Structures are given as C-alpha cells and as structure tokens.
Amino acid sequence: MRSFRTLATYGFLGVMAFVSVFPFAWMIIGATNTSADIIKGRSWPGSALAENLSTLVTTNNVPEILYNSFKVAIIGTALTLLVASMAGYGFEVFKSRFKDRVFGGLLLLMSIPFAALMVPLFVLTGKIGLINTHIGVILPSVAALSLLFIMFYFRQATIAFPSELRDAARVDGLKEWQIFAFIYMPVMKSTYAAATIIVFMAQWNSYLWPLIVLQTNDKKTITLAISSLGTQQLPDYGALMVATILATLPTLLIFFVLQRQFVQGMLGAVK
Amino acid sequence: MKSMKSNGWAFIMPAMVMIGLFMIYPILSSLWMSFQTGRGMNLSFGGFDNLLRLTEDPVFLQALLNTGTFLVVQVPIMIVLALLMATLLNNPDLKFRGLLRTAIFLPCVTSLVAYAILFKSMFALDGVVNQTLIGLYLIDQPIPWLSDPFWAKVLVIIGITWRWTGYNMIFYLAALQNIDRSIYEAARVDGVPPRAVFFRLTIPMLKPVILFTCVMSTIGTLQLFDEVVNLTEGGPGDATLTLSMYIYNLTFKFMPSFGYAATVSYVIVVLVAILSFIQFYVARDRK
Amino acid sequence: MRLNSLKSTGSLGAMLTAGALSLAAGTASAETMLTVWSWDPNFNGDSMQRAMARYQAEHPDVSLVVADFGKDALEQKLQSQLASGSNQGLPDIVLIEDYAAQRFLLTFPQAFEPVGEHVDLSGMAPYKVALATVDGTAYSMPFDSGVTGVFYHRADLEAAGFAQDDLVGITWDRFIEIGQSVEAVTGKDFLVQPFNRTDLLRLMLQSAGTWYTTPDGAVSLGADPRFRKVVEEYIKVMTSGIVQDAAGWTEYVGAFTSHDVSGVATGAWITAAIKANADQAGEWAVAPIPRIDGIEGAVHASNVGGSSWYVMAEGPNTEVALDFLNDVWAGDSDFYADILADKGAVGSLLAARHTAAYDAPDPFFADQKIWADFADWLGVVPEVNFGVFTFEAEAAFLAYVPDVIRGDAALDDALETYERRLTQAIR
C-alpha cells in the first residue's frame, strides 16, 4: 500500500514535471537551430547556437537591454515588497472595521483591467515629466501591477503570524517599526521569498506599460526587444529563442536561490 | 502621533499614497470616460448609453460567456492540482524535491512566445498530441484543437492550467511552512490516514492562502488575455474571445470607442466584486 | 475638446520650432536628429537608414534614429499617446499599415501632417496615395506597396503537366482546377492561409476594386454587388480543397518554405521569407494573381499588407522630415533600386520600374524577371478606400463565414448575421 502510494506520487509528479519542462527544453533546442529549421518544426539540437547568438547581439544592444530590465525589475521589486508588506501588516495587525472596508475597496481596484487605465496614466506620467524614463516605468507599474496583489498576499499570510511574538516584543519595549523590521520580517522569510519571486517575475515580464512609456531603443527592456523581434514579417526564430532564454534565466535563478526558503522549516523538522 | 503609531496607519500610508496617485486618479478618469460615447476623440456625455449598448452587443455577450466558462471550469482544476502537488512536494522524504519543484514552476517563466509557437505546433491537426491520442486508440479522428469552437476552449484551458498551476503552488508551499510539522508527526503517530490529514489538517490551515489564490485566479481569469491572444487569437470566430481581449480590440484594433471600452472594464470590476464577496463569505470563520 | 485645444497650441509650437530650425539651418553647427518609429528593423528600419544615408550627402547635419516596435505594439503605442494629447517624445515619422491608416487619420485629424501638400506624390502608385487620402488631401509617403503575386514551387506545377504560362491571365475558377490537378499528383494543397485571418479575401476584394465597407462608410454587402460576388468566389476557393489551414503565422510561413504546400498568394514582401531557404534556389516561380470572373474592372493585381510613412504634425522636426521624404522617397529611383536589390522591398514609386535592378532576372526564381512583373502590376492595383472599420468587418466575417466553408451553415444566413453584427458595430 505504502509503496504503491510512493510510486503513484513519483509517477504523478514525474508526468507533471515532464509536461512542464517540455516547452522549456524545446526552447533550448530551438536556440541551437536556424530560423528556417524552427519553422519547419525541427525538434532535435542543431549547430546554429553561435550564429543565433551573434545575430542577436549584432541587431540588439543586449547588455544595455539587460541592464534596463534588471534596473526596472530590481527597484520595482524592492519597492513593492517594502510598501506592500508594511501595508499588509498594518491592515491585519491593526485591524479595524474601517480598515477592513478600505481594504475591501482596494481589493476591487485590482480588478480593473490595465488597458482601461493606460491613457489617463500616460497623461499623468507626462505631466510629472517621466515619459521615456525608467522611474516612469517603475512607479506606475509598482502601483498598478503588483502592489495591491502583494499587499493582499501579505495580509493573508500575516493571519498566521503569532500575536504572542508581537506582545512579547511590546513588553520588551520595542517600537512598532522595530517589531516590524526585527521580528516580523525575519519570521515571514518564506512569505518574502515567495513574494520576491512573484513580483520580480511580474516586473521583469511587464510589457504593456513599458511599451507605452519608453520611446527610444536605448531605454528598452527585454520584453520590448522580444516583442519587436517576434513580430517581424520574417522573425529570426533562432535569435528569438536565444533572447527568450535570456529573458527566462533571471527569474529562474531567483526561484532556484529562494526556493530554499520554502524547505528550510522542513529540514529543521527532520534534523 | 502616538495614535498614528498604535493604530497602524503609518504602515499603510506609503501604499495609500502610491495607489492614490497612480490608480485612483486614472480610475476616476476612466470612470468618467465610461459615460462618454462616440468614436475616437469626438466624445460626448452619453449617460447610460454605453450600458444599454452592452445589452444588445452580441460580441460582448459572447465574450462574457466565454470568460465565465473559462472561470468556472479552469480555476477549480488549477487550484486542486496546485494544492495536491504542493502537499506531495512538502513531504520531506521525497527525493528530487528541489528538481521537481523547479520543473513544475518552469511554465510561468517560460517565454510566452516560445510557449505559443510550441503549443500551436503540438496541438496542430497532425501534431504530436493528436498522434499520441490516436496511437493510444483514444480517438480515431484527429481533434481540430484550433479550428473547432469547443476544442479551442479546451486548448485555452489546458494552456492556462499548464502555465499557472506551478505559480499557485508556490503560495501553498510557502504557507505550508507556517504549519508546525509536529502536528503532522502527531497525526501520523495516532494513525490518521493521509486523506484525513489532508482534508482535516492541511486544508483548514491553508484556508487564508487558498482564499487568496482563489480570488487572485478569479481576477486573473476575468482579465484573461495573454493565452488567448497567443494561442487562438480569440478564435475560431469569437469562440475564445475574452472580455479583456474585447476591451483591447475596442481600444486599439477597432475604431476606438474609449468610453464603451471603459464600460466593459467596469463589468469586470462588478463581477470581481460579486465573486470575491461570495468567496469571502464561503470562507468566513463560522463561530 | 481638451485634446483639440492642446493640439492647436501644439501645432503653433511646432511651427515656431520649425521656423527656428530653418533659421538655425544657416549656421553650420545645427544638428537635427529625426526620430522614426517602425517595425521590422531589417526591412522597414533598414530602408529608412539607407534613405537617410543618401539624404546626408547633401545634408550632413541631419541624422536618423529608428525605434523598433512590433507592428501591433507600435499602433497601440501611437494610439495611447495621441489619445492622451501629449506631444512628449513624439517621433517625426511613423510607419502605419494601410489597413489602419484611415482609422488613425480620422480619429486624430490634426496629428498628421498633410504630406501631399508639401511633397509631390504624382509619381507614386495611385492606389497607395488614395489609401491615405482624406477629403482630397494625401497624408502619407507611400512605401511598401504590398503588391501581390502567387509564389509557388515550379516542380509541383510541372509534375501535373502544366507550364508557368498556364497560371498567367486566368480566372480563379481555372486556378482551382489547376490547383486540384496539382494536388492529385503531388498530394499537396496549392495555397495556405493562417486560420483566423482573411488575407486571401483581402487580396480578392481589392483586386475587384471593392472592400468590406463602401467609400461612404456603409456595409458593402447591401450596397455593392461586387462584394457578395467576391465572397462567393472566396468560398469556392476555400472549399475546393486547395487551401491549407495554418495554425498561425509561423506555421503559415513553415508550410510553403518547407514545401508542405505548393505555394502562397500574398504581398511581394514575402520574398524575403522564401529566399531565406537558400537550398530552394531556382525552384520557385511567381505568377500574377487570378482574376475574379464576372466583375468588371477586376484585375490580376492587388495589395496585401502594404504600409506607408506618416509625418507627425507635432513632431520635433516636421519641416526636415518633409524635406527628407521629398528629397529621397518621392523621386530617387536609384534609392528604390537599392532597397529592391538588397531587401526585396517593392516601393511605390512607379518610375523605379525603369532602373536596372527592376529589370534584373532573379536566380532564386530561375531567372524569372519577377521584379519587373511586380512593378507592372503595381501600376494597375485598383484604388480602394479601406475606411475605418476593416477590423470590425473581419471580426464579424470570421465569426460566421467559416461555418459556411465547413459546411455547417448556409451562405445567406451567415451573411445576414454578418451584416447585422457589422451594422451594429459601426453605427
């Protein structure tokens, strides 16, 4: 019975993992094939990787594009995590009926499709003078893309934050911000880890807003570069595959590094 | 100042300022827009004309129906799968845990471009999926995944589930860390069967996060855009057209009707309000 | 209201700046950087760069920077910006696809410079000028002509006992017969079309001088008998078994470049995709598109997916942009010969037909003089007003007519629903 269950577990997870990885593997194979071969559906590794890479770096300023993407994603992620976790904490720990109403209202804001806000947001960004700047990308996309969502997530996660910890800290004379910074933040490590992955991914992949705000090639992020590569009349799919791998790796690395946070408690229990 | 400190508004303020500036203002502006009618920039106040137009617009009704279908069918499948996988992956005795976790997370970081090209070739009439199904004698005619209205919807559901299940799983994995393992140990010592542990222990402990993912997935599905554009382009015909894609078309592809597009956007808001209320109500603490 | 007031003060500002610029042009140190938004940097962007290289011979103080976006992305970006009324960061020149031209011109009437008032467009293919004309004023510098042909693997045609000439000057009905004979021998469909697109219908409609809507904005179905006739012919082609359904753009290009189908009927810009397969050199041929029988004025020439340059009225360097277009794009045949030879770009300047490049045989097409052919067809493409509702019409068409092609609905019923929906959408 037990061995059957183990077998079923591995079987199920194995199939899921295979299905999940398959398109990714295909993308890597694609990066080694010529564009014409990719179009014809060739599905085994080829020898065009170097050629594809050189096409990509000669037609695009790859270091600059990556720099722009990292800049926007890192600042955006840090800002979102800080502001959202503070708010999530504030809403849950200092609960009041009025705050709950405010929170409910904020939740609804999340449901407005971004396309409906784009034109007024552009007017606003223009008035502040942030068109074609990275700050002009970051501030509105932090506010409209992930802030509410992560605030909601932190609030839900904070429900499990033991109030005894906070009470003890108060008795010890810690100020509220010290409780947040020195007690809450370390305790909620796995929540921060998960949120970092989610927000970084959202900021890194964000497309619609940077497209509208950024005007010149030297400000472009990688999603914009991929979009213009992929919609040509004859896209170079080989170079495109290399670019998509470049676009995927950072989030994947972050996941790889931070996933330890998910298992740490578990390891502690085994020891 | 003291009251500010102790009632927590200071923690909330930075978020409120950002949201106020970059969301409330554009939202008010778009709300105003939803009462405007006309083409392009020649807008005039139309009162509730846009609401009336909704009721007699066959495309809107089709998009609403499609979006509702995706929501009702897809979200439950995804949530159950994600929960199941998170629970299985949380087992400390499981080998290759890190590898499996990363693999299952992969789809949501895989580039949409690559995934669209591959999915379309896999699900083509003579693609690998049909060949496999025929090889297994499950079907004898290839399934027209892209050109049949029913199967195109199935394909979109497969696509969203594939892309977002691992993503939802992360939230559950992170939340499972908050459960004290000794509870599980105790249950095991007491001989509680695994199924009962899952339903009596895991699910109740994860309730806040499950509620969170349900609300977020509801919002995500009501705003569904990427998968549809990349896999089926809303077709065949309007068979997989979603509300978000219709808003996009009304704003950018068709002769722009900014006011009407804003009105359709607020349909999504109202739907989210109703559905979130129901979800919170079902998940409320019964005392 | 708000937009209009912004616009008018804006254009005053632009005039002042332009004036200041032409004054400054006297001093040697003044430098002007023209900004262009376009898609497809290898094709459109590079053509623009080459034009600038020529312009710089006389105007060393002018330079060019091209920002690349996807085509849909560019339309979306331009539309958001124009709707916001902000001039900040507007380019000098943008590329717009023909199908979207009237929509932009009519939605944002003061955003675009009437190019025809400053530049002599008389040497351009008339249908291209007509596409961007509003109330008698032309607003674009015609570029990619979108002139069409039937591209095919010669061996397939010959295998069924036909010669290249058998495809010249025929009707669609004859084309279907030939396609079916070829398929009987080779087992391959003759043409391909991405599912959820109507490129073939676009091609047939314009070749017959009609479109989804009439020039005065009515639904053609009730008002123009030619429309229904074309649709009937289109359905005949689609149900004849000679057109393969492709799952998307990639699969579409894959079908004819990997020889899953015998060929493709579309704009000359597809040549680049065909030539990317060097191993197929010498195997290809081009025929004029078939004519629709029974419609007066229907020809063997059409336009699919062409595009043109537009000058932003409130761009930073409007005057220079116009001078640049006038100098190179409006009359320099050598320039057009250059982008034809290197890029396969068939521009819209009729006089370029007389350059050596256009007369050269192309070895990839077994020394057929395909460019001379395209240039000849360019002159006879019928003028059509695409209006502003092309995408609404195609969405409605694709919602109902494919059922007829599959045999699940009657044509009359489908067209009736199509007409009702389109009328509702454009009211």
From TrEMBL, chain A:
Residues 66-258 form the ABC transmembrane type-1 domain. InterPro entries: MetI-like (IPR000515), MetI-like_sf (IPR035906). GO terms for biological process: transmembrane transport. The keyword Transit peptide does not apply. One of its GO terms (cellular component) is plasma membrane. It holds the Pfam family BPD_transp_1. It is a multi-pass membrane protein. CDD domains: TM_PBP2. It is found in: Cell membrane. The chain crosses the membrane at residues 7-29, 72-91, 103-123, 135-154, 179-204, 237-258. Keywords: Cell membrane, Membrane, Transmembrane, Transmembrane helix, Transport. PROSITE patterns: ABC_TM1. Belongs to the binding-protein-dependent transport system permease family. This is Lactose transport system permease protein LacG. It comes from Donghicola eburneus.
